[in-house]
Request: fold
Amino acid sequence: MLSENTKEIVKATAPVLQAKGVEITTRMYERLFNEYPETKELFANTKDGQAERLANAVIAYAQNIDNLELLGPSVVAIAKKHVAVNVQAEHYPIVGNVLLAAMQDVLGDSASEDIIDAWKEAYFFLADIFIEKEQSLYKL
Ligand code: HEM
Reply:
């Protein structure tokens, strides 16, 4: 489970993410495609606005970290999209790394070590939920 301390930090950063979310996720995709060009093909048919959709998902997660069951329906919908383009478990650490790096790029000194550590824990917690859901969909 996520620690109370992590949940508090993640919730406290929701307003910053609301303000800077798209800037962060835009930077994230820039890093993703530069540093891991092999991931580009997964997004070959993706429509515009992907940075907004990812930012919205991240903000919803931060806001609902105490009530993750509320995210259930959107987790299933996103997992189905991921499975349709063949996202795999090994992609999650890659996206985690570039997302955390993008937060540091955009937030600068206000992204303290505590904030980055809390988000790292929270991201991988969410990633495990997606990975499990997607593995069960791949088996169908
Ligand atoms: C916890 C991490 C992640 C979150 C919160 C997340 C969130 C999302 C969201 C909100 C969408 C849009 C769904 C829609 O259009 O309705 C999406 C689509 C997508 N995601 Fe993720 N994602 C995550 C991890 C990943 C990873 C690791 C990859 C692999 C590099 C990935 C690749 C994609 C692709 C390719 C699409 C577009 C599918 C399409 O064009 O239909 N995502 N994701």
User: Anything to note?
Assistant: The chain is about 70% helix and 0% strand. The helical segments are 4-12, 14-35, 50-63, 72-84, 91-107, 113-138.
